[in-house]
Amino acid sequence: MIYNEISKVIDNKEIAENIFEAHLSSDNLSKIAKPGQFINILPSSSFDKTMRRPMSLSYQDSNSFKIIYKPIGDGTRIMRSWKEGDSADIIGPLGNAWEVSKNKEAILLGGGVGIAPILNLYNNIESTHPSHLFFGARKKEEHFIDHNPDKNIYISTDDGSAGIKGNLFEAMKSIFDINDFKDKSIYVCGPPMMMEAVRKFSVEHDIECHLALETIMACGIGICQGCTVEKCSDESSTDTYRNKYELVCMDGPIYKANEVKTCLL
Amino acid sequence: MLALKIKDITFKNPIMVASGTYGYGNEVSDFVNLSKFGAIITKSVTRNPREGNPPPRIFEVSSGMLNSIGLANLGVEKYIEEKIPYLNKIDTNIIINIAGTRIDDYVETLEMLEGADSKHIGYEINISCPNVKEGGMQFGVSPDMTKELTQELRKRTDKILIMKLSPNVTSIEEIGLASQDGGADAVSAINTVMGMSVDIKTKKPRLSTIMGGLSGPCIKPVALANIHKLFKTLDIPIIGIGGISNCDDVIEFMLTGSRFVELGTINYKYPNLVETLVDQLQSYLEEQSIDHIKNIVGDLMIENK
Question: Nearest Cα to B122, choosing from B9, B223, B253?
């Protein structure tokens, strides 16, 4: 079921340097949304751009949800000015959801605002499932989670100003040896280059890995066919339609590392 | 007040959704009342399945978007098997958009659809897709080929036959006349305008095919000028398309000569817009004391100077 509803802003605040979290009400969609799914937002009724803005949910309960964003584009700059009581037109929940491997420990990697769907998953499984959360950013000021290795929560910074120095991929490899991955699966969302490094590493070492992809989308519901990713196609299939290219909005945004040819969309 | 006809087929209102911008109807059925639509024109179907163009396929530009999907579609056989059963359940007119490479492709696709257990009332023929070499564009730029294709299809169907015209031609009137002479019941105009955008950081074009089709509010004046030209030339109805995003736009298109309109790119942003516009159009007629929508078609006031 997909809903088109008007959400009200409950709260909207800067949680780290130039990183914002908005908390919005929802009549229906947050009840049925699953971690990994996203919504397509019209930030205001006067928004004059052609496309809505797709955003992953970072949190959801029965009547509200949260998103995390960086105000760098036309849509997110309007979102930054949201005040309590403002309205946003949203469509969702969209796309597929994370599939958690029950018998494997989870390594969750979230880079920058790509942490959103990772946090939603973490909060959903952390109490019942052995989990290791990694959150990467360029510097200390961009973090809003504390480095706490005792609780399996690690942060990394490119400049070494907090937590582990290096990118997420390097941080993960500094904690886990290659043999540690046998009983673990990776869940990752963040900058495309980092995701691509993790994807290649996982494929090469036969590690179960789930990716949340991001790309330009217009409709978000499988109509415009604009948001394609090239998949590792079924060579034996004679049906060319949707065999080579998948729609990230509908077939994704979550893929296993061995299902797609690249994260660089 | 809003009902109109093409041949003997009645449309509840003049607002349709353009091919490729509304899929096959089922995608939005959770939250859109499709029975309010004048018609749904389904995504281009071809004789054989097509994988479409490599990514990136879309890019947002000022007041519009570029696309180069490349007619990705499941092919007519699967269309009949998988899409028609749902389309048959929708309480509105269904028009099937067909694209092809050769006349035989269009003919075979149409014949298969004629033989299907389907309630569709007509066809829109895509002779103007700018994004694939074989997207029918060679038909769309040639009056002779347009006429021949229209005639071949006309022989094979009594359903409504609409030719979809490209603005990327020297004379859209000639292509329109060729469609009319070939036996088309209507023309729809315009398809997307050839466009391009470049990422200055990477120096790469924004679309994998370099150029693509521009749509959205930015092409509205181009559409109106082309519709004006067609209205002066043709006797058959014109279905106006190109950047319509509100009720004023619908009226502007109708004054210029469109008997019907198609909403396109705006559907991505407001999937529910048709219903709103139908209500607003009704209110407009009541406020202006206009008896019927057909009275404003082509009612353009041009002063002689």
Answer: B9
Tell me which residue has tokens 């991955």. A181
pLDDT given at position B25: 85
Q: Are A258 and A203 in contact (CB under 8 A)?
A: yes
| Nearest of A81, A84, A92, A86 to residue A41 by alpha carbon | A92
- A-chain residues near B65 (CB < 8 A): 50-51, 218
**Distance from C-alpha of B121 to C-alpha of B118, rounded to nearest angstrom:** 9
Q: Which of B32, B129, B132, B149 is catalytic?
A: B129
Reported residue count of chain B is 305
B20 contact residues in A (CB cutoff 8 A): 223-224
- Is the preceding peptide bond at A191 cis, omega within 30 degrees of 0? no
Find where tokens 């950081």 sit: B201
| Residue A226 contacts B, CB cutoff 8 Å | yes
Place A11 in a pLDDT band, splitting at 50, 70 and 90. Answer: very high
Assigned token pair, A254:
């979550």
Tens digit of pLDDT for each residue in A238-259?
Answer: 666 777 899 999 999 999 999 9
Domain ranges of chain B: 4-52+71-193+216-296
Tell me if B86 sits within 8 A of B26, measured CB to CB: yes
Architecture per CATH, A105-256: 3-Layer(aba) Sandwich (3.40)
Residue in chain B closest to A54 (alpha carbons) equals B269
CATH number belonging to domain B4-52+71-193+216-296: 3.20.20.70
Indicate the DSSP class of residue A204: H
Query: What pLDDT, on a 0 to 100 scale, did the predictor assign at position B76?
Result: 97
Of A2, A50, A240, the CB nearest to B50: A240
ipTM score for this prediction: 0.92
Nearest alpha-carbon partner for B265 in B55, B19, B13, B12: B19
The CATH architecture one would assign to domain A3-94 is: Beta Barrel (2.40)
Q: Calculate ∠ Cα A136-A137-A140, nearest 5°.
A: 115
Q: Determine the Cα–Cα distance for residues A228 and B31; give it in Å rounded to an integer.
A: 24
Q: Name the residue ranges covered by the structural domains of chain A.
A: 3-94, 105-256
Q: What is the pLDDT of residue B304?
A: 79
